[in-house]
Amino acid sequence: MTMKTVQADPSALGGPALFDTMSTMRAMRRLKPDAVPDETIDQLIQAAVWGPSGGNMQCYEYVVVTDREVMARLAPLWKRCVDSYLATTGKYAPEGMDEAAYGRMVAAIEYQRDHFADTPALIVPCYRFPAPRLDEEGLSASAQALGPEASERMMTSQTRFQALAEGSCVYPGVQNLLLAARGLGLAANITIWHLFLEQEWKQELGIPEDMATFAAVPVGWPQGNFGPVRRRPVADVIHRNRW
Questions:
Q1: Residues 177, 217: Cα–Cα separation, whole Å
Q2: DSSP readout, 135-196?
Q3: What pLDDT score does 57 carry?
Q4: Which of 8, 11, 173, 199 is the most buried (most CB within 10 A)?
């Protein structure tokens, strides 16, 4: 696997502005401490709400943290989560990424960890998936449609199916939020490290027990400049018609 710098193609379908935004939307972790106006945060949440939601259920909620005292109380939790990640999965560079580049990424992660209390805004997308409405007639029809083998497999994969169903309702909106941040000149990056200590995060932020959290997105004005992303070439990842 190799990675390469991806430049925007002005002739790409959809117009140059959108493609330029996507091709320069790097994870920006070094943030200025300057506050982000509430109306700008509202624009980001509006973009998230515009995202598709499975079954149009729209059971999402967004916790927005801008209070410095609250952020200071979250900083130790963030440090514990990041340290856990860097000691395990984050200990090694991904295949195809050279050590120097990965070292720069880790340095940015450590910078964000050490300056987390100065983060201007943190957005935590949440979702409470409604209980399924099932009846015997529907279950019977479902089993008949799938067939006995597939029905049995579904019974053993409910946990994964539930997680994917919830994620598919949340993450399109989060991607909209990230795109909106880039379009407004804001730095943002999606993380799920808080899940290492989700109970503690939920307690600190007063999030109900039955509400699941799906990301922690630090947002602020970037210290550096946006630039082209490095990704695997399309030819290496596409399978036409079948694998």
A1: 9
A2: -HHHHHHHHHHH-HHHHHHHHHSHHHHHHHHHHHHHHHHHHHHHHHHHHTT-EE--B-GGGG
A3: 74
A4: 173
Question: In the structure encoding, which two tokens stand for residue 29, read together?
Answer: 């972790």
Number of CB atoms found within 10 A of residue 6's CB: 17
pLDDT at 140: 84
Token code pair at residue 145: 């449609």
Q: What is the pLDDT of residue 200?
A: 97
Sketch out the chain's domains with CATH numbers: 25-236 (3.40.109.10)
Q: How many CB atoms lie within 10 A of CB 216?
A: 24
Taking alpha carbons only, the member of 183, 64, 44 closest to residue 123 is: 64
Report pLDDT for 13. 46
Question: pTM for this one?
Answer: 0.86
Amino acid at 1: M
**Residue segments in the chain with a per-residue pLDDT below the cut of 70:** 1-16
Within a 13 Å sphere around the CA of 5, how many CA atoms are in the beta-carbon half?
Answer: 5
Cα–Cα distance, 174 to 168 (Å, whole number):
10
CA torsion sign for 200, 202, 204, 206 is negative
